[in-house]
């Protein structure tokens, strides 16, 4: 592969993603506000820039992996990224952000003469390190085609979901299913406990019956039935509860804005937010089973 990538945001996800682009043969010029993260990426072959603007100035494509929409929009506009890039640069934002912010980012990039793609990811830090992420992308077909080689260097699958914002929409809809189903599985285990049903018996039935789902058979919220699940290591993440709370918050915003009666999604967003602010701060999202038990006085 050839070409120069400007990469801004070298945190838990962005750091290993940038390194995978280097491994695939790209010249990667990176920047992060945290000097230690920039130094670690430089040790792995990323060229350290003195600023975000410097990172994108000579790039063919720009990848951002930032905490939230306000960071992306601030960098694109006031931070000068769009103004500093060569005309026609491809801007790929892999952060998980509000659908409305993603659409605003596309609009700003287009107005500045660039191409844009929202391409949030699933797969976590493990997927970022192993280049096995799944990308869900929104933007026009040309932008997706241009981004495909980059995405292939950082992941195993990229789905073109539709126009601007469609990648973010797919991400929050998927995670709303996941968040709700983890609560459903947790409530079923706690109800089973109250009825004297063993975890293994419920698992053996539900995992081969109509209750089967990823939250049960891969990330089982009680220890025992699924070796290696976060429940088996005292709920060390995995997918941390604050990240689930963030994604469900974005889903709840989108539901309210669109007048969608997503009653369980909104309830789940509140449950994860409370959990993440309290005992769940450093736990996997499947630790929500403990919150269910506590609310049940058990
Ligand atoms: P992180 O906080 O580790 O990384 C974000 C980085 O952006 C930080 O290092 C921060 O210093 C940097 N940053 C912020 N503002 C900046 C600026 N103006 N200029 C340069 N750098 C700046 O977060 P993360 O876990 O890597 O997550 C990044 C995004 O990916 C988030 O939107 C998150 O929701 C999403 N995501 C995370 C995971 C996960 O498991 N961590 C999984 C899927 C999606």
From TrEMBL:
InterPro entries: 3-OH-isobutyrate_DH-rel_CS (IPR002204), 6-PGluconate_DH-like_C_sf (IPR008927), 6PGD_dom2 (IPR013328), 6PGDH_NADP-bd (IPR006115), HIBADH (IPR011548), HIBADH-like_NADP-bd (IPR029154), HIBADH-related (IPR015815), NAD(P)-bd_dom_sf (IPR036291). Residues 4-162 form the 6-phosphogluconate dehydrogenase NADP-binding domain. Residues 165-291 form the 3-hydroxyisobutyrate dehydrogenase-like NAD-binding domain. Coiled coil: none annotated. Signal peptide: none annotated. Pathway: Amino-acid degradation; L-valine degradation. Keywords: Branched-chain amino acid catabolism, NAD, Oxidoreductase. It catalyses: 3-hydroxy-2-methylpropanoate + NAD(+) = 2-methyl-3-oxopropanoate + NADH + H(+). One of its GO terms (biological process) is L-valine catabolic process. The keyword NAD applies. It comes from the Bacteria. The active site is at 171. Its EC number is 1.1.1.31. Belongs to the HIBADH-related family. PANTHER family: 3-HYDROXYISOBUTYRATE DEHYDROGENASE, MITOCHONDRIAL (PTHR22981:SF7), 3-HYDROXYISOBUTYRATE DEHYDROGENASE-RELATED (PTHR22981). This is 3-hydroxyisobutyrate dehydrogenase. The lineage of its organism: Bacteria, Bacillati, Actinomycetota, Actinomycetes, Kitasatosporales.
